[in-house]
Amino acid sequence: MHKLKNRLHYAVSGFALAVLLLFIFNFDSPNSSVSKNSSTDFPHGYKVVSPYVPEQLDFCGEDVPLENIDVRERVEREFIVQTYYHSASVLYLKRLNRWFPIIEKILKEKGVPDDFKYLALAESGLANATSPAGAKGFWQFMEPAGKKYGLLINKEVDERYNMEKATYAACDYLLAAYDKFGTWTLAAASYNKGKNGITNQLGRQKATNYYNLVLNEETSRYLPRIIAIKYVMENPKKYGFDIKENQLYPPYETYKVKLDTTVAHFADYAKLHGINYKTLKIFNPWLRDNFLTNKKGKRYFVTLPKEGSFYVIPD
């Protein structure tokens, strides 16, 4: 009986191995019935393509020299990344519908090219992000640069998180950089590497053009990434993004109130305006604590949602 069991075991094992080998060789064979175009492919009908890169591109009206093979391949890399980084691109398309109208208005007011709204998108994804280096907000200001360009930053208030004020500060930086370098492309590159960093590299390499500079990878990819984001966001369906209008994040309906006193607790302040603490923080992320010490009567403007425009969850 024991020998019979062993024989059966070896027979079954041998048969299983034969079937497995037959499947492997049949699957790999060019004449296999399970071909690459079979209906068993997963996902059926899916194909990955190299995304379209236009023959002409510009940033702020300044041509991108795509005839240079290095520049073209750097730009193409970012088109590929942006096209297939689906989650980020979908969120970008949703968020820009809410925030771009505000940013566009300030850029126009300050005389900064409209394309710089895509710099903010590249920097933060239009969210009040914090980088590993400590840059914060939509425009990713480090603390020294934020203070230099007029943003108040302390334990209770951090205006890097005030999107409108940070946009004005970014405009001031970019205008100063344009005056220094003479092109918007170099001004944008300096936003990533700093004015001194770009100045040093221009001198060291005896160059005058961003696309001729040997730079660290982040700054080398910076302008191509902004350009790719710009083109994909302006032509989403060309790159497979079919976001319906009713799926975009709508602009907030808000108004502002002046605040020039000390606030003992912002939860109480919020209730006076018919909202709760969380809602107050959503619209005013620049308020960094639950109180405000304002002994000198500094004037702030708090953003509040218009009545009925933002549902507040009752406690």
Give descriptors for this structure:
315 residues; mainly alpha; Lysozyme; two-stranded antiparallel ribbon; 11 helices; 5% strand; globular
Summarize the entry for a quick read.
This protein has 315 residues and is mainly alpha-helical. It has helices at 2-28, 69-84, 86-110, 117-124, 143-148, 163-181, 184-193, 195-205, 217-234, 266-272, 277-283, and strands spanning 58-59, 62-63, 254-259, 300-305.
Q: Indicate the structural class.
A: mainly alpha
| Sheet with the most strands, sense and barrel status | 2 strands, antiparallel
**Strand arrangement in the largest pleated sheet:** 1-2
Which regions are unreliable across 5 or more consecutive residues at pLDDT < 50?
1-13, 15-35
Q: Based on the structure given, which CATH architecture of the largest domain is correct?
A: Orthogonal Bundle
Number of domains: 3
C-alpha termini separation: 75 Å
CATH class of the largest domain: Mainly Alpha
Strand content: 5-15%
